[in-house]
Amino acid sequence: GAYELVQYHCDRDGLLEKIVEVLEGQGIDQVILLSTLTADSIMALQNKVAKDDACQKAAAFQVDLAAAGQRATTQLKDVSDTNAQMKKRIGVLKSVYGMPELGPDLLPPVDVWKKLNLNPGTYIDFRKDLLPLCRPSEDLARSVNVDIVVNDVPQHVSFSSEQATNPKRSTMGGASWMLCFQRYSVALLLAMVDPRENAAPKDVDPFMLQEVDVRFRKFVSHAYLEASVSLRKLFDDSIKFRQIKLDCRLAAKDKVLNSSPTEVAGKRDRSDDTYKACSKNKRRFGKGLCYDFLAGKCQRGDNCKFMHSKPDSAKNQASRAAKDNKKLVTSGSPGQPSIISDMWGLASKTLKECEEKQAEELLTLVDGMGVDSVVNQSRVANRSSKVEALGEAIQRVVGLISASHVGEEIRNWISLSRDQQAQSHMWEDVKSELHSYADSLRREWAQILKVSDQKVNVGGDIRAPLMKAVLQAMQEETDRPLDYPFMDLVDSGIPLGTTCDVPPTKCWKDRSEPSKHTWYPVTREVWTNYISAEDFAVEVKSALARANLAREVSLGRMEMIGSNEVHRIQGVNRLACIPTCDDAGRLKKVRLVDDFRRSGINSVIDPHLSQTLVLPTIRSVALTAQYCVLEAQARGDSSPLLWLESDVKSAFRILRIKVEDTWYCTNVVDNQRYRNLALAFGAQSASYLFVRLSANAGKIVVRILQYCNVYSGLVLYIDDRGCPTTVKTALTTILVAILVDLLCGIDISWEKLFCSRQPRCLGYCLDLHSMRLLLPEDKRRKILEALKLVGTSSVPVEVSTIDTLLGRLVWASTSFCRLRCHLRPFFSTIKVARKKNLKRVWIGKALKQAAGYIGRVFESLCASPFNSLVPSMGCRRAIIMCDASTVALGGVILRDSTILWYHVVLSSPAACAMLAAFIPGFEDSTTKVESSHVCFLELLACLLGILSLPLFTSCLVISDNSAAVQAVCRHRAKAESMAALMRRFVVLRPDTTTESSKAMHVNGVANTVADLVSRSSVIHAREFFATVPEAREIDVYYKMCELMEDY
């Protein structure tokens, strides 16, 4: 601060270095110390550095220093009060834990303590918030030894700390992490302790803190803000995030605050960059056990190349999991054999691990309004009085509209089906009144925020000053950054990225690499448009000149270039034409698209664009809908679920670009040159810039819906917005969304506004009655026709046909994700065709097989329930434990409290026929089953279990064969026999192309019940399960026959 003041006043006279030197000599090196300067001392400083009278500084220097001193005095007072509170709490903490003193190395920074004091769930970044102040001592920095327990076996690990003080490395050493961890623990305890009561914190225990790592702190930050859950309950769930558990053997008085750094550490998370410094010590086991370890004599510790594990450790671990997780799965009764108890324990443990991974995946689903805008019902931590006043104003207007004839007409419109809503003209009748309400509300909002409600200076209807003020008021309520500075760019003209950089924001992620598109030089000369535009030359000239172009020019979005301005043109874009036809094939309209890529403009924009978008998927839509149902049930609202669809009219064209950039956005129509004054579709930065505006408007809608106490989840895909609601709250949701858009100056596409139970979202149809995702029949038919053409063609096929088909398959794979592994031949063909500039290609064998297989899948693939897209939000998974040997295969299915089991003898005719159909060289029952067939048999055991479940049933397969687990998870395998079996299985059960089926690998010693089924005779298995209540044998013979069909 002192440096900046001096630089501002003294740099022109060459006095900067001298004044800084004098200030540092007197110890004035911080803004807060400026309060000690007086007018006399300032004059003395000037006299010391001035050479003559011409160098004397004006009085403004002293005024600024005095003002800075006054502000610093206020800050000093606040700091003093904070330090006093913190000192008092430290005294209470020392008294509670019987500590003579708390070393300075353990004291957290004041700002960290203040954050946790306001909200104990706040995420603290060790690297940014604590590491600069945490430097381990030389002794500690050499190595850190920690005793841990892995699979119930105590082990000794050494953490290296050599990178701890290297700022160029992105990792932290073990010692640095532990010091940061200790400071975090102390800060959290100081925030939770009550200075008025000489008692330990009630909501947190020092022992709990030993499970804290980066991922868990982020989980706490989300969960604590979203629900009234105590920290103790959150920390009790820390087992969900644990892979390596510390040996927490600490004395009662010698807890976290009094322990040495070698006794306290968090778990190692492979995805946590703060613990990657320890990854080089990762154990690489040999093939066998360490016999010295079993005898208790191994001295090699973590450097031992053999396994430090007991043969029955996994079994013991599964048994303990059964006791700890009785709520997850019904455990066996005391009278049942111990093997059944172990089975329920293993099922409970693996099911919990599976659900933990799914819960982590849900935190990666975004709603399209920012990189940190996770699909969830976010809560406001600190409510702003300004935002509350805005919400009160709009809620009052919503009440007035609801009580008027407009509200009644909207209610009647909501009761219609989507097709009926499309034919209705209700919005044409009421939109003028809604505009009047929005105008009145806009003026009231402007008065509350004391800003202007004027339109942007560069032209257009957007109320940038008002939107910025609203976002600034919302920023007071949250720590997440809001993109309100972007509204200044909207007001003055947004930079396209041709003449300067596109300003980044903290709301979106940085690009990891430049564009992969081919670089083109900038073209300034006029050339002919694409053949598509020339084919519709009459329509282009007439329709565009008379209607579209005239309208664009009248709205200020385009401008004709005069002959005296031609020299200012920096680039000319070639035009392509996209015709739109009705069901009868008649041309309805044409849409012109500027090709910024081949004109070279995108090659100019690319290095100036540093960020990219994070768009939602159909999984985000399903999750948002399910959250709406859960919240409605919590409110006692059992009315049907609806989905509000809205669209921005003219989308990109509502934004104006900088004047300098408009000369890169020119084109030619009918020998007349035009330049785009508004954002043009085709520019590489266009989507990014528009979404920044639409995301700001979406966040305002979300916040107002929260104030109105209705569900506020929203999914934004560029200009398409989707919002779930219920029949009971639909009117409020619709009016809030419309009024916010209108008062912000964002025009609504009224003909695309729907609120129904059969919405269209991201290209899919949603059936909210049965909570299912449906493939639109028209798109499914086009995919099947193209697949049939590619799969059966004996002549060269147009590359554009394959490219279009690939685009549709990639779109379908966003929901049916396990089809992606079969798209490789499509990508390879398109890559070669583009590289060699081919227009037609012969269909190769791999592509023909892939097209035929995917076509068979799509013949029966038409829907998927939401709980297959986001399984953790659906019903509990059925569990399949299976195994195979060279004698038999079998498995056990656990569903609720029912046990189903199956057994197949490999010498039976059906099994031999199955092996002969898929395994080359296997002829009949005289052929011996070998160990090389076991992977195929293990996979067959898994698939028979899945086929025994009803369609769309979520399941978890547990197997001790890695190849089978990978095949079930990825729907492909390296071995041709296993790959062929998976392809046949998927044709039978296309519902498994979603995330409905999962598979996890376990140690063979833990899979005891599956071993019993596969390695014993069917008579012995029946005798065993006869003693187990609710156990029932099922026949899988017909399932095997279905798998053998066509082979």
From TrEMBL:
InterPro entries membership: DNA/RNA_pol_sf, Hepadnavirus_pol/RT, Znf_CCCH, Znf_CCCH_sf
A GO term, aspect molecular function: zinc ion binding
Every C3H1-type domain range: 284-311
SUPFAM superfamilies attached to this UniProt entry: CCCH zinc finger, DNA/RNA polymerases
Pfam families to which the protein is assigned, alphabetical: zf-CCCH (PF00642)
Stretches for region Disordered: 309-334
Keyword Chloroplast: no
Keyword list, A-Z: Membrane, Metal-binding, Transmembrane, Transmembrane helix, Zinc, Zinc-finger
Zinc finger (C3H1-type): 284-311
Entry annotated with the keyword Transmembrane helix: yes
Top-rank taxon, per record: Eukaryota
Membrane-crossing residue ranges in chain numbering: 878-894, 900-922, 934-952
Protein name (database record): C3H1-type domain-containing protein
Top-level taxonomy: Eukaryota, Sar, Alveolata, Perkinsozoa, Perkinsea
